[in-house]
Amino acid sequence: MDNRQKQAVEEYLRQKVRETQHGGAVDDEGSEEDLDLMLEELEKDYDESLAKYREQRLEELKKEFGKIDRAAAERGSELGNVSFVSAEKELMDLVMKSEVCMVHFYQPEFSRCELMNERLAVLAEKHVDVGIFAIQASQAPFLVTKLKIKVLPVVVAYKNGKEVARLVGFEGLSTNGTDFSVEALELWMFRERVISKRSLTFASKPGTVRSSNNNTNSDDDDDDDWY
């Protein structure tokens, strides 16, 4: 997406977050007018030679808006936030209902876990189509045992209820073992196919995707979302 499209998506997301947090539509005529103006600008291109490109841009916008709408319907007032869960059954239900999500197993007294929650909170604001949940390990004894979690923090990524990636501690994110950037975590999400390249917000866009699960290069993948 170009910068104008990104601005439109950002504005649409801000509107949707405000709506969900207020339990419905909010009176924000200024923002709606700004979004309308951006969309009008995108549709002003009447050059036939660029008509196909214009349609492609509008379709991309519709796709992004659709993701936000689905996330809003699914997450409600939690849209754009990390959802802290206190019961295993509730967490399992959320994971099964989510197309793509991540679960952070943590303990509040661990400084590394708190840092992970802070970084996830930043990413949750931008990647609303990814459900980001957190549960204290002490409140999830069954899952901790089943998933053989021995070290915290642990972030497990799921697609359609199936685990697709796991991040243990700050492995691969940190050079000093005590801190890591939002960019590094977002890049991990991309490499593990939790998000697409076009969704990258903080990290620079690499030329290829290499997943630790299958060690394959994305150049062989036909899914455009990963380019």
UniProtKB/TrEMBL annotation:
SUPFAM superfamilies: Thioredoxin-like
Coiled coil feature spans: 32-59
Xref: Pfam families: Phosducin
Region (Disordered): 206-227
Sequence ranges assigned to domain Phosducin in this UniProt record: 41-169
Acidic residues bias locations: 218-227
Alphabetical keyword list: Coiled coil
Residue ranges crossing the lipid bilayer per the database entry: none
Entry's family note: Belongs to the phosducin family.
Protein name (Swiss-Prot/TrEMBL): Phosducin domain-containing protein
Native species: Candidozyma auris
